[in-house]
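G.,

No rush on this.
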Amino acid sequence: MEIQFILNKKQVTAEAGADTVLLELLRDLGCKSVKCGCETTNCGLCTVWIDGKSRLSCSVLAAAVDGHEVTTMEGVEKEAEEFGEFLAREGAEQCGFCSPGFIMNVLAMFRELKNPGLEEIKEYLSGNLCRCTGYMGQLRAIRNYMAAKGYAAEDQEVEA
């Protein structure tokens, strides 16, 4: 079936089978930041935004985005690069395989939550798995990013 949607601010027309998941279609369209990690909606590696909300593209049929807007990390490259620098400074990017999905969720969190506290951050990002770095470096990177962006950080203390 033919579907039309906006992908990273550009109108796209694509062919998708009735059982094609969005993850597969996006990768076929060149969005290599969207990765398959678990196929069970448990890792967060395939996170994209559909109409501005974080979604796991492995759990969405491609046909469901017909008429909608989809954003991958390729569509927020400058923002993603800026936050990625904070991850790198904390040594929290390691192999980088999980970074695109994690970054997409972090950026979505800042769009959705105003000045989140540490517990809100942990809850919001609980679906993102990282096998290399653990989570302390990621949390420090978020705290430092928040400080650079002028967010208050009273309860943002993260152990070393």
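When you get to it, here's the other one too:
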Amino acid sequence: MNRSGSYELLTEELGISPEILDVVLEAEESLKDDFRKLDDVKEYNQYKVLDVFRKCKISDVHFGWNTGYGYDDAGREALEKVYAGVFHTEDAIVRPLIVNGTHALTLALTGVLRPGDELVYCTGGPYDTLEEVIGIRGEGKGSLKEFGITYKQVELLPDGSIDIEGCKKVINEHTRMMCVQRATGYAWRKAIQVSEIAEWAAAVKSVNPDIITMADNCYGEFLDTVEPTDVGVDIMAGSLIKNPGGGIALSGGYIVGKHELIEQVAYRMTSPGIGKECGLTFGQSRSMFQGFFMAPSVVNGALKGAMLCAKVFEMLGYDVCPSSSEERSDIIEAVKLESPEAMEAFCRGIQSAAPVDSFVTPLPWDMPGYEDQVIMAAGAFVQGSSIELSADGPIREPYIVYFQGGLTYEHSKYGVIKAVQSLYDEGLLKAMTKDENTGDKDN
């Protein structure tokens, strides 16, 4: 195995155990062919984004400030045109004041649904933070349930795929919107492939073409050469501090889809009659443009890091989801660590690999919107950015940690190395244990 100058730097100056680094390098070598396939997707998406920027004639004038109501904000209008162009939709909303993915999804749901409508989630239960939005748990203040919108969910099949026939059977005269969540969230399952979303959308429309199909695309942008809106999804939402922000956007979210639906969402976002014609970008347009342009490359690095994480922990005897050989549809890698102590050690390793706040010790805490305590390691340039290297998870059995991000592949790789090293140093690593007295390892 080639031991380059970086090998010596990691082992001699940065304190990485050679045996750990050897495992990581062996895993990396085995993934070379897979990485080349990911590079093909990155190249396609980069050209796609560049072509839309050119067609929209983006110029320096689109990076300027506006004040007051934000009328005639050329940058905002051009940015939304770029998003609509890349996702092949009729319209888009892209705003820095959409605070996260949950907010973007909430706008899409509350903007379109009306009292008496029924919402159906077709990938089992939604992400934890949406449970209170829907009214599944919590006090229900402002929830869909409070406004008379009913909810059903169709569980995934045992193999983790969408129950297409089950989705068709649940449709009734009140069904207005059916949704899929592409990413896993805090669930032990594979992410939903775009090809599967295409089959699902066609099946829904075959029963009732008026039903609105929606996709939660968080963590999924630019993992494929097509997006859910290319295959029959009417409206889609996501966060700019995940994939499409490229680690440069400071905040924000997006919603793309059919013009009529985006107009309804815009009326919820501001007010009826005003819609998306107002709203400042507060000087963030440049970072949002640039982040979106960089996103295919950044996502590629994060995706390679997730695959490496899977391979390394497989080699060390852990259950992972997805496996290193499975096709991916989000940037998340789940590792079953089986104890809260191992979760905390893993997250400490990730935190110590951060360029920001590497000295901070992550601890479980009562995060708003979650039923269980959550531990989160994230030393990011943008707080909460999960396209940057991070790891998190709810403190509940079987103690699964969710690894994602890395603005470069090398940083994501270093996160894997440090997570393993942390588990090893604390005697919690399955395949290798450290003798507390001698420092020797046993296999």
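Residues 434-443 have pLDDT under 50 and may be disordered. The CA atoms of residues 55 and 82 lie 9 Å apart.

Enjoy the weekend,
O.
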